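# step 3/5: fold
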Amino acid sequence: MRIIVNGESKEVAGQMSIAELIAFLGFTEKVGAVACNMTFVPSDSYEKTFLSEGDEVEILAPVCGG
């Protein structure tokens, strides 16, 4: 299945949840926010939100600064 992640085309195997995608992509730090098709996805929904062919996902990591 082909999806777009942070503006880049990615090939993933079969149906995948957002939580599985985050692990698949190797995010080791806590994710700041996720949007799927321009809609915010709360972190408590990552396990039960499944991706479909052509979905556009934005994953934002927290930024620290001062």
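# step 4/5: annotate
The mean pLDDT is 92.
# step 5/5: archive (pending)
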